[in-house]
Amino acid sequence: MEITILSPGIYTYGAMLIGGVLRDAGHRVTLTRTPAVPADSVLLMSLFSTQHLLDPAIRDLVRTHRERGGLVYVGGPVSAAPEMVLGELAPDAVVVGEGEETVIRLVEEGVSDALPGIAFLDAGRPVVTPPAPPASMDRPLPLIPDDIGNQSVRGASAYIETHRGCIGGCTFCQVPRFFGRAIRSRPLDRIVEEVKAFSAHGATRLSVSGGTGSLYGSTGGEMNPEAFIGLLRSMAEVMGPKNVSSPDIRVDCISDEILGAVRQYTIGWVFFGIESGSDRVLRLMGKGATVRQVEEAVERCREHGLRVAGSFIVGYPGETERDYEATKDLIAALSLDDVFVSSAEPIPATPLADLAVRTPRDKNPAFVPHTGEYRALSLTESEARCFDLMMHADLFRPQLRLVTDEVYNTYLAEARKQGRDIRAATELILRYARA
Ligand code: SF4
Fold first, then answer.
1. Ligand 1 centroid – CA 287 distance (Å)
2. Which segments cross the bilayer (predicted)?
């Protein structure tokens, strides 16, 4: 069968994996980042953002492809809310959750209520079949496009999946809901084979993905530092340490041996999801870590000569001015090498989405007009905090970065864009919560 997989904007690992699964099942598969699809091809869309459901180009593509008689199936992280995908895009079916095994049966046998792990419309009524069992972690090589070397996702050609699941329960995150809280790791020899294949296709740098890299090899809630260190060492043997990164690590999932290996076998960066300088907000977020743990983790990384980036979330429902000031103080104290700021975005089927439904608009910072320092800019409270924190962070980097007019306008545009996207996502979630 002729199959085109659309992964909008970037080749995600999930799209490449599904491509590999279908290729090994004997189908002719093309992977594309742009919505141009031959009429005679089955179209699989791998969608990872709520914004994709609202994107006019994607909506048009589904409609026109189906009008031309083509089949359209949607999978990826958006499938956590199958009714929403069916309601917004009306594809032939949604592959719900881990789709490696379901997708083969779907393209070969078609839509059926006997097929677990899918959702479809039956006379306009959504039908969601029982969940498919978790997919095997021993699976085919991904379909790696020849231009993978041109892609840069935070500096990496690709984030390869070494394990699934996360022990965390952060309210804003989909990972533990999609993959579960138990860690399932891939065999090391299969990962190495995959790293070699990526390298042969021109990948210049590979990153470890899976929520928290150092959970690789964990079993029964016990971390296995040796497994993680072996993983980094093996990746570095193929790519060279300057071309491997494993940035995403929880502050409570580090040790001296883990940080030593990150220093020895990777580019030497750690990326902590710090989120807030207020313990109260960290508790609201279900982060499972305290500000004190953040401070200690950053200090420990520095002792190992690592560079540390941190991400922060502002405008979480319930965040007060005092909480926000605590976040600014923490950024000043940590002097991080890089800082990423985002406004709290409710992702469907997460506890934050439920909270957004329960929070009245006049109490939700994503909708409340800002009346403070930036009132002349007509921002919402979360947009104002996002904008302000981006500029604030620049004052405390080890390397001074001047906030020029251009930087100011870039930050302002970014804060506004995030605000628009979050309001659109919230409206969507509210609409389906009421349905
Ligand atoms: S630690 Fe990271 S991957 Fe795990 S739940 Fe929290 S944000 Fe998600």
1. 8
2. none
The reply to whether ligand 1 has any atom less than 6 angstroms from the CB of 166 is: yes
Rounded to the nearest 10°, the torsion over CA 47, 49, 54, 58 is -30
Residue 231 Cα to ligand 1 middle (Å): 20
Mean pLDDT of 204-211: 89
Closest listed residue to residue 366, CA positions, set 411, 315, 331:
315
148-434 matches 2-128 in CATH topology: no
With bands split at pLDDT 50, 70 and 90, how would you rate the model's confidence at 400?
confident
Residues of the chain above pLDDT 70, percent = 100
Quick check: CB of 213 below 6 Å from ligand 1? no
Domain 148-434 maps to which CATH number in 3.30.420.40, 3.50.50.60, 1.10.150.20, 3.80.30.20?
3.80.30.20
Q: What is the mean pLDDT of residues 398-406?
A: 84
170 lines ligand 1 (CB under 6 A): yes
Helix, strand, coil shares of the chain as percentages rounded to 5? 45, 15, 40
C-beta of 173 in contact with ligand 1 (< 6 A): yes
Residue ranges of domains in the chain: 2-128, 148-434
CB 74 within 8 A of CB 89: yes
pLDDT tens string 147-177: 999 999 989 999 999 999 999 999 999 999 9
40-70 pLDDT per residue, tens: 899 999 999 999 999 999 999 999 999 999 9
Q: How far is residue 110's CA from residue 62's CA, in Å, rounded to a whole number?
A: 17
Average predicted confidence (pLDDT) for the chain: 96
For the domain bounded by 2-128, which CATH number is listed? 3.40.50.280
167, 209, 212, best to mutate for ligand 1 pocket (most atoms within 8 Å of CB)? 212
Q: Is 170 helix (H, G, I), strand (E, B) or coil?
A: coil
